[in-house]
Amino acid sequence: MADGDAGGRPGEAAVTSDPPVIRSNVPGSFPWGVMHERHPALIRRVGEATPYGPDRRRALDLLLAEITDGVIRPLEGPVHDRELWRSWDRGHLGRRWDDAPFLWAESYFYRKLLAAVGYFDPGPWRGIDPFEPFKQAELLGKGVDEELRALGGLSSMPVEEQARTLVHRALWGNQADLGFRLSAAGAQAGGQVTGLLADDGDLIWPAVDGPGPARVCLVADNAGGELLPDLALIDHLLHTRAVREVSLHVKPSPYYVSDAVPADVVASVRRLSAAGGAAGEVGERLRAAMSSGRLAVRTHAFSCAPLPYDEMPGDLREEFASATLTIMKGDLNYRRLVGDRAWAPTTPFAETVGYFPGPVVALRTLKSDVVVGLGAETVAALEADGRPWRTSGTHALIQARL
């Protein structure tokens, strides 16, 4: 679907025009703050965290200048994914960063950041995750210790209470977003929770506990403090609910600071196994499930695409179509799932995801402007409160279309 164009999703008649895509060209708006405050701060943090040489530091300075005062430049040099990004361009190269759709510009920034640090280039920095110092600090932090200890209390709960607790831990674990913390004043993982605005959580288990063996796709968001409860939920699916297979989709390369890549999955399973007790048992079961193929780690180039899921390629569509249930984690996946547009918040969730090829549930804490599926009374109360409820990370959604 072209940016801002009318049109329906595959297989649907176009009845009304979709609302406009969100851009970062309004000073003081949340997207403007990401592009003009968060991204420059991140470039500086990346440069401070790793002892890059003069050539990489010059590249980081050039990227800072480009996003501050320049236009969107193409990837330079012998780039392995040049044609892929050309197919994703949609005519934005050569335009001002603020004039491109926010989702597109934000995603392309992270690809250019990887180029600046030489992540894909021959040489010493090839394959070195520029965000690994931040991820590692979180994975070894006290907050994770508390999360691991909490797993010990699950065994005394009835199965349905275990399930509900694990879903909510996975949901609120989405507050553990390192990129979000760079610009959200006062926002911290584990901060005050002020509201679950929509809760379709009880619909998950009838979908999973059907008559046949279930296959679940879980599309992960962040590593560390969020991936651990995701893995605990996967263990529940495999060990307690007897799900046949779980496909865990992570990013093929570093993205949005804390987004999980395969190395983060391995590090998290090791962290669980080393913790001992109930957490250690979860870790060992997950290791065995990975070895047997019941837990399969997946990557796909489209996971780092600057486009909504209604433009997903055929092989990924088939993957989701074959799943009993797909669980989409996090704010970015939500934006890509419903479309990063100025939807009225009362727009039905099922209406925005009608194109999706199978049953889907979104677990998301709100850290950007996009939101759908809320009741009019809920929206009125939130707006009357006067605080930035859409972007503070203190509200959450569990929304399903089964």
TrEMBL record:
Region Disordered: start-end pairs: 1-22
Gene3D superfamilies in UniProt: Uncharacterised protein PF01937, DUF89, domain 3 (3.40.50.10880)
Keyword Hydrolase included in the entry's annotation: yes
Coiled coil: none
Keyword Manganese: yes
Reaction equation(s) it catalyzes: beta-D-fructose 1-phosphate + H2O = D-fructose + phosphate; beta-D-fructose 6-phosphate = dihydroxyacetone + D-glyceraldehyde 3-phosphate
UniProt-listed SUPFAM superfamilies: AF1104-like
Alphabetic keyword roster: Hydrolase, Manganese, Metal-binding
Obligatory cofactor(s): Mn(2+)
InterPro entries named among the record's database cross-references: ARMT-1-like_metal-bd_sf, ARMT1, ARMT1-like_metal-bd
Residues covered by the Damage-control phosphatase ARMT1-like metal-binding domain: 35-378
Similarity remark: Belongs to the damage-control phosphatase family. Sugar phosphate phosphatase III subfamily.
UniProt-recorded name of the protein: Damage-control phosphatase ARMT1-like metal-binding domain-containing protein
Naturally occurring in which organism (per UniProt): Streptosporangium brasiliense
